[in-house]
Design a protein that fits this description.
22 strands; 14 helices; alpha+beta
Length: about 475
């Protein structure tokens, strides 16, 4: 143990050389013409390195700093989970409660969906962002919390029986935000401010549930464009699954609370129990233990234990990666959609902890194996008459949306109203694909098409009925 301590001390002590090497990792962003990243490296509750690379705002020429405030996407989920754990420890809910106790308008699926299922992504509830896309909404279309609750209340099926599988679903964490509102009478934004961010001194952190709200030191989100960059932000106001705005500096306080939680911090009788619950992995009905805990993932990197969660939404990317046995944390927040903060954070960890790590993963490893699977061969082409069988107008009651399938220039085309529109490719008998979406057509006893079942990854078994043939 002592040898490891000495080795770590000497490793982290070589920070002057380390800073130069971190700079080189982020060199591509380190200019006044590009968005970039803010980086923080924390050892034993103190920054050993923090810096911004690139610009927080290209219009006004404002550089990024560790105080810049970023949207952190799904890295927010740990704070939503924290709110639920606080409510449970305050005796106001149980994590084993049926969610319909608080959200009675959700369908009764005949099986219990619990708060814990939502926390571990094992509820089977379909992902609302995918549903919105499948309903034909575009990136810049606006909808409200109430619209999402209504959309989820219309779903007659789950993706799977609760606890049967683990499938990442933003709906689960969005619904947790609604449960907070129903239990406390205040928004998740207000509850987290009073119970979490205020007490911890995270002065520049909030759940952003009003897109018109002014945020001091906000970094603008960007995406690449032909001329360089374009602004990439959202007007959506759902929180819980995402929506946290925070800075590298504020996340230091959250990290300190992880390693040294005190009773005074959040007025908890047993602060260590808080992290015990937060780090408890999900368990499926058949007994398999997940890597996913409560808004945090257990993993390992080069032989060291890691607790982390990334985030990606509009022009922002985020990663907070803890090495708990080394009391070492890397935070990387970026305001460019094509950045990869998880890979960048690992490169930073290599610099400081490399001496303690196992060999680097072989970049060739796995890539050849993935490519060796047989390619899906194009099935035999269909005649125009056979293709015409699939044309028509199809309706989904669960989405309250109509899809049109038409024949143009020998191709079947899907019309939804957003970038799902386009050519359908046949992948098997009565099965068509468009991007990551599969339509499995269904026929009656006479062999006539009656509808299709759609599968889009985070949404499964969504039924459409043929209304009229073209």
């Amino acid at each position: 143990g002592l040898l490891l301590m000495l080795l770590l001390e000497s490793t982290v002590a070589q920070t002057t050389g380390a800073a130069f090497r971190v700079d080189s990792v982020f060199a591509m962003y380190d200019n006044t013409r590009s968005p970039g990243c803010a980086v923080g490296v924390i050892h034993k509750g103190e920054f050993v390195f923090r810096r911004g690379y690139g610009m927080a705002n290209l219009e006004y020429g404002i550089p990024l700093a560790s105080s810049s405030v970023f949207r952190i996407g799904s890295t927010s989920k740990q704070f939503t989970a924290a709110a639920m754990v606080l409510l449970a420890q305050d005796g106001r809910i149980s994590l084993n409660d049926d969610i319909r106790k608080y959200l009675p308008e959700l369908p009764d699926y005949g099986v219990q969906v619990t708060i814990r299922h939502l926390l571990h992504h094992t509820s089977g509830i379909r992902d609302y962002l995918t549903l919105a896309y499948l309903a034909g909404l575009r990136d810049d279309d606006f909808f409200t919390d109430e619209d999402v609750v209504t959309m989820l209340s219309r779903q007659r099926e789950l993706n799977f029986s609760p606890g049967g599988e683990h499938l990442y679903s933003n709906s689960g964490y969005f619904l947790l935000s609604q449960i907070v509102k129903r239990v406390t009478g205040v928004s998740l934004k207000q509850y987290a401010q009073e119970r979490l961010f205020g007490p911890l001194g995270m002065a520049n952190t909030h759940f952003h549930d009003d897109h018109t709200h002014i945020v001091p030191q906000r970094a603008t989100g960007y995406a690449p464009s032909d001329s360089g960059f374009r602004i990439s932000i959202t007007t959506l106001e759902m929180v819980g699954d995402g929506g946290i705005f925070t800075s590298v500096d504020d996340l230091l306080e959250w990290d300190r609370f992880f390693y040294a939680p005190s009773v005074s911090d959040l007025h908890l009788d047993r602060p260590n129990d808080f992290w015990t619950v937060m780090l408890t992995r999900g368990v499926l009905n058949k007994g398999d233990t997940l890597n996913y805990a409560l808004g945090l993932t257990h993993g390992e990197y080069r032989g060291l234990k890691v607790i982390s969660h990334g985030g990606a939404f509009v022009g922002f990317r985020a990663e907070m990666m803890r090495f708990p046995e080394q009391s070492f944390t890397v935070i990387c927040l970026c305001n460019l959609s094509r950045s990869h903060p998880t890979a960048l954070a690992r490169q930073v960890a290599d610099i400081y902890l490399g001496d303690l790590m196992g060999p680097k993963p072989d970049p060739q490893d796995g890539s050849s194996a993935a490519g060796s699977g047989e390619r899906e061969s194009e099935p035999l082409p269909l005649s125009p008459g056979q293709l015409a069988e699939y044309t028509g107008t199809y309706y989904s009651a669960e989405l309250d949306v109509t899809y049109r399938i038409s024949l143009a220039n020998g191709d079947l085309r899907l019309e939804v109203g957003n970038d799902l529109d386009g050519r359908l490719r046949r992948s098997a008998v009565d099965r068509m694909r468009r991007g990551g979406v599969t339509l499995q057509f269904q026929r009656d006893a006479d062999g006539m098409i009656t509808g299709f079942v759609l599968d889009a990854g985070r949404v499964k078994n969504l039924g459409f009925t043929l209304l009229s043939e073209d």
